[in-house]
Amino acid sequence: MQKKDLEIAINQSLSDLLRLTGKFCDNKILPHYKFILSDFQYNKGLNFHELRKFKNKNNKTKIPQDLTSIINFLHKESADL
Fold first, then answer.
1. Which of 1, 20, 40, 74 would you call most buried, defined as having the most Cβ atoms within 10 angstroms of its Cβ?
2. Where are the domains of the chain?
3. Which residues, listed in sequence order, are joined to residue 35 by a DSSP beta bridge?
4. Confidence of residue 23 (pLDDT cuts 50, 70, 90)
5. Are 37 and 62 in contact (CB under 8 A)?
6. Buried b (16+ CB within 10 A) or exposed e, 58-74
7. Would you list the DSSP string of 25-40?
8. Residue 69 and residue 75: Cα distance in Å, rounded?
9. Which residues contact 54 (CB under 8 A, 6 or more apart)?
10. Alpha-carbon distance 46 to 24, whole Å?
11. Higher pLDDT, residue 52 or 17
12. Which of 22, 41, 40, 43 is nearest to 31 (CA)?
């Protein structure tokens, strides 16, 4: 996938998500977005509650990044596949 196509797809998904939250949520979402990347290859032996605790603990150690940094990382990683 080309970097520009990836950026367009992510921005469109973000726009759709924000439209849904505006429609169905009472909380206002400010336009200062930060993102974290999570690995979905977790231990398959965990039940849902253990998996959620594991993911939350793992994600708390990550530093939120801006969208440009995330897109650059994802493009680099997908180019290696």
1. 74
2. 3-79
3. 65
4. very high
5. yes
6. eeeeeeeeeeeebbeeb
7. -SSPPPS---B-----
8. 10
9. 42, 43, 46
10. 32
11. 17
12. 22
